[in-house]
Amino acid sequence: MNTTELAALGQQLRVDSVRASAAAGSGHPTSAMSAADLMAVLLANHLRYDFERPGHPANDRFVLSKGHASPLLYAAYKAAGAIEDGELLTFRRLGSRLEGHPTPRRVPWVETATGSLGQGLPIAAGIALAAKRLDRTGYRVWVLCGDSELAEGSVWEAAEHAGYENLDNLIAIVDVNRLGQRGPTRHGHDLDAYARRFQAFGWHAIETDGHDVDAIDRAYAQALATTGQPAVILARTLKGKGVASVEDREGLHGKPLPEAEAAIAELGGPRTTHVRVSEPPAAAAPRPVTTEALQLPAFDVGEEVATRDAFGKALAALGGARGDVVALDGEVGDSTRTEEFAKAHPNRFFECYIAEQQLVASAAGMAVRGWVPYASTFAAFLTRAHDFIRMASISGLGINLVGSHAGVAIGQDGPSQMGLEDLAMFRAVHGSTVFYPCDANQTAKLVAAMASLDGIRYLRTTRGRTPVVYGPGEEFGAGGSRTLRSSEDDRLTVVAAGVTVHEALAAADRLAEDGIRVRVIDLYSVKPVDADTLRGAAEETGCLLTVEDHHAEGGLGDAVAEVFADGRPGPRTVRLAVRTMPGSAAPDEQLHAAGIDAAGISAAVRLLVEETVAR
Amino acid sequence: MNTTELAALGQQLRVDSVRASAAAGSGHPTSAMSAADLMAVLLANHLRYDFERPGHPANDRFVLSKGHASPLLYAAYKAAGAIEDGELLTFRRLGSRLEGHPTPRRVPWVETATGSLGQGLPIAAGIALAAKRLDRTGYRVWVLCGDSELAEGSVWEAAEHAGYENLDNLIAIVDVNRLGQRGPTRHGHDLDAYARRFQAFGWHAIETDGHDVDAIDRAYAQALATTGQPAVILARTLKGKGVASVEDREGLHGKPLPEAEAAIAELGGPRTTHVRVSEPPAAAAPRPVTTEALQLPAFDVGEEVATRDAFGKALAALGGARGDVVALDGEVGDSTRTEEFAKAHPNRFFECYIAEQQLVASAAGMAVRGWVPYASTFAAFLTRAHDFIRMASISGLGINLVGSHAGVAIGQDGPSQMGLEDLAMFRAVHGSTVFYPCDANQTAKLVAAMASLDGIRYLRTTRGRTPVVYGPGEEFGAGGSRTLRSSEDDRLTVVAAGVTVHEALAAADRLAEDGIRVRVIDLYSVKPVDADTLRGAAEETGCLLTVEDHHAEGGLGDAVAEVFADGRPGPRTVRLAVRTMPGSAAPDEQLHAAGIDAAGISAAVRLLVEETVAR
């Protein structure tokens, strides 16, 4: 498109953004208007995308990081002929797929959900990494950012990652409209301030007038010609550009234009230009295929093996069987044992250094492209990426997250390193699966099972060695459990997972010597839980005692309680959990101090059994 | 101290780090050894600190961001005469206050817990901000960082914040030992790479040999002489410096030295030099005092007021009555209503822009210094700061966090903006308090009550207006609840909080017309919960129906269930919660689609009542 056509297209995108927001009675048209020319030039002259084949392997990828500018995205879809005007005007209504912030669940051209600022660039960096090292079909990744969101550390985590990885297929466009939600940004229109920052992280920075379509065109061309480093286009723009009453004015963020009809007229009225978006190149790489039969590691019953070790070996084995499995590390691969995968499959291993947001964002970006990522760090440090995990669930992405060093059982390192709230965090993620295995064979089976589940899958592993209690032939999966001790005389049921399974077994055996029989359930699938087994145990033994190496809220105790919120009278239940702040001590001392070791369990059982007798 | 003395002190700190780790059988001596000379020069020649009066208002503040180098910190305490050698050797043992990573709960000279990397600099920036704008006693804030942790985005969020705020009282020291946990860092010994990044964010960067005590001394002097901008000292060091068998070698992170005795000899053997640390200046500013009686805003029953509005007004009022209250905003103060405080008390208002980790870190830093911070953003975006919240609880800090725009009730903006996992996150924080008020007067009282509680306090507010149901004279606090509908004929109890209280009341009134009486409890204190009231309701009505605008896990339903994990038979319970992924729609449509509006509650009640009859 030439200058006149591009300028007209920019106005059309503004008009449609204003119309959509007016129809909705809400939305962020002024944030769309500042970026309209940037979007017009991209769509008409540079993006390579087949809207009829969003899955085309050589399609460029576009991420709208400033997700609140969604009317601009939908206006562009209309201009590209992907949606009709009638649908555009369903924006933000019940049932419409054109949501306030874009999500890929129902709109096939959206790569990832945005709306939590500072996530678009990190995820785009993940896609670009997949493009460069995995897909290799030559596509470019474009991400349109706001200037306000550059205050997020996650942006600089991504800048560092992309710069270090020389992602010259990644182009960030920053709509520097100088106004945030409540007022001016830190740096206003000082493009140099942003350029210095990106350059320091190894990027090629290009400054441009964001309303001069020819200048924008040249900037994109320069960005595409950049090799060996990612490029950022810093575009000086005006919020609400094109309508004098709102242009460059504070206090108008997230509000439809006060007089939409007059604004549309001022913008030149409705237009219906259709853009012929460039086709992607025909070349398309085949997807990786299964390379060999899955040979999971097998461990002997009674052997002492840390579940983190089993995870590392199982992941390496899975990587051999499935060419689509990739692994990501937060610079603790020697501790999480992801290093096993790194050794076996170095081309599918990604070191993300100590940057947990980028770790999860990279995994998300790879999942966007159909890869099956396993991202690992200490369980405690996954809390750093909570918002990214939440957003990945909104995207409907399937990613595997593995947290090692869970609970007080880690010992001397103290509370900063103990995952004690990870189960609560992951249970509350929509559609998630949460596994907490107690032995090596179970871990191996769950590592393999995770790969094929939907949504966010979490596996919690343990630092220290625990005895293998299951044979390598046993099967485990979502919603399962194992009853490890059971008799007709069981006085109650101990429900445990991970390290506490072994404490429960020791307690059960000790109590049995005194004639007190208790059932022991290994509830390795914390979400979904095996409701039938728990109900059966409650009916048959009358009381459930949950024991978890986790805070008392949101973990195993809550998971068990949820089963009994079914309108029927609940069983007797008691919870053992970590209720005090731990310090440094040996693992067995920690479990004892928290009252979740065999001694603590035995004492609780005796108390409950005596209470029952007393009644 | 002169060159010889400083060098000897560095060796002493190394020896004591090796000894402490050897005694513990674990720890990170090589990470301590690289920074020993940096610490020696700081302690002997630049730090102004009275170890006998850690609360001295003019004491410099020191934060060990690389918390795993704790033996170095404890060795410095010994050199300063603050602890004895015997205590040093209790490192990492059960009951010792010298934990694997430093925590301030028991060690008076530790400002904040560290061990989750990338948090020291953000919190130090918060302390420095308090120093400059609140305390004004002239102290400096020193923070010793590792090089690995510079990969964390939170470090650059802090760099941006400190640069923009011209915090020339903040000095970061980076121990560039080039080795992370599993291998080399991204930039190795390339000090320039780090210098470029800090300079881009407005810092003065100084490069030095981190083992040349005179050079270090000059670097500190230069940093102290820097005005108008924060300073960073980038020190080239060797991990394990001083012991040839471990110096600059990979694979030795987090391990005691293999041959401790030989290493100690190589380092010149034990020394017992005591350092006379400089006294802080005598000047000490008085703490702020109560300036006027608290006049909370009062709202008329029946009036329609958003609880976020009530929060804003109450916080401004509280700021008038308490001079120690400060407010922090994540660039959404117009939405959270923190802007009310900003207008009333601009000197105690801190804009943190869209940087939620720094928002919470700044609050933590101010709490370290005795201020009472209220930090606010959307509930959903507080997940971004989860790891900082977790660490603040380990520090034992009292901070108030306020999340607005909770739940599907926000309406059209869609799931990225909806806090649907915040209750789960905050309940699982050790020692936390969680409030979710339903009306304006209740909100105001809870805003005031929060200020005096221990630990992490969370208040969840609502975007839309809700009717005022309580008079301004009613009192509310931690562990409370209100029974809003009650009769002797109640067939069950609806337990609600926030927006769902109003839906529950509407349902109760509708059902009453059909002769079905239900009790309604407003469980505004989600943690701790009012166990007695819930137990009484369970006994008297036989069934509890919880209704929450939150995912089904970790929130109100789980909080109620926890009450009944007391070893006694549980009541009948049923949960209504958000179980599907919302899209865009009006607030009432959202509540209806999630089944948590009056219609959904009524339908559930009828089903439960019929079931009871059928039995």
TrEMBL record, chains A, B:
Keywords: Calcium, Magnesium, Metal-binding, Thiamine pyrophosphate, Transferase. It comes from the Bacteria. Signal peptide: none annotated. GO terms for cellular component: cytoplasm. PROSITE patterns: TRANSKETOLASE_2. Pfam families: Transket_pyr, Transketolase_C, Transketolase_N. GO terms for molecular function: magnesium ion binding; thiamine pyrophosphate binding; transketolase activity. The keyword Transferase applies. NCBIfam families: PRK05899.2-5. Homodimer. Belongs to the transketolase family. PANTHER family: FI06132P-RELATED, TRANSKETOLASE. This is Transketolase. It comes from Streptomyces pluripotens.
